[in-house]
Amino acid sequence: MKNKIANYLSELQGEQIKDAHSLEQFRLKWLSKKGILQILMDQFKTIADIELKKEFGKSINELKQKAQSTFDEKKALFENNTQPDIQDDLTLELNLISITSLHPLSIIKNEIIDILSRIGFVVSDGPEIEDDWHNFTALNTPPDHPARDMQDTFYVEEDVQDITQDPKMLRTQTSSIQIRVMENNEPPIRIICPGRVYRNETISARAHCQFHQVEGLYIDENVSFSDLKATLLYFAREMFGKNTQIRLRPSFFPFTEPSAEVDVNCTICSGTGCPV
Ligand SMILES: [Zn+2]
């Protein structure tokens, strides 16, 4: 009898339960009304010798607890996880599917950083809630400039727009980072500042009140406008293709002299003319 239970115990330990179906097979074999444990219980009742009965009962109990806990454990596992238990089968081939991906804006941002870091620019960052000094005054924006108006700028406190009170706002440009870097670093400086900016504009298919800029700042001896032009041309060709053309148009910005805006030829028709 003792040997019989020892054999059952090792049989129980060798049970392979891989799915809900084999779990049910396990239950029928061990724990059901016609299962091994019930048969053992029936035999237990027929034992007359008290000492033997005591010993036998203890062994059956042990076996029963093991069977029940094995069953409970697997049941909980299959209920919580529909995947096969890979811990039980180390030969299973891992088929990991990536469920994450980058946002298109992050992909483009990373590409821009990659292109410009190849020619020595490093990334600088700054706060998105700025004070008047860094966002406007230090960039030569006059006190009565329309950009300072509530119609154009999101102020943190609507009633605080007086410059003397240094009002806080969502930055309207990443140029505020230029000021912060120049305040804290000696030249040479060669940075780019990618980041979100905010303007109080009507949302349309072409414009949003929150958009992205990449600022560049290069301060060193013997740096001229031709370096700016070469950098912009290099960037446009790395980004849009080696035949890309750029055009610089004289423009006005309060914080740069001389100033220009840059155009890039159409990447769809290469400038031959198309609806885009
Ligand atoms: Zn075109």
What would you say this structure looks like, in words?
- With 276 residues, the chain is an alpha+beta fold.
- It has three domains: 2-80; 104-223, Bira Bifunctional Protein, Domain 2 (BirA Bifunctional Protein, domain 2, 2-Layer Sandwich); 233-276, no CATH class.
- Helices cover 39% and strands 16% of the residues.
- It is built from eight helices and seven strands.
- The protein has helices spanning 2-13, 20-31, 36-45, 50-80, 104-117, 132-135, 175-184, 225-240; strands at 122-123, 129-131, 168-170, 189-198, 210-219, 246-253, 256-264.
- Strands 1-4-5 form a three-stranded mixed beta sheet, sandwiched between helices.
- α2 (20-31) runs antiparallel to α4 and α3 runs antiparallel to α4 (50-80).
- The longest helix is centred in the N-terminal third of the chain and has 31 residues, at 50-80.
- It is elongated and about 110 Å long.
- The mean pLDDT is 89.
- Residues 266, 268-269, 274, 276 line the site of zinc ion.
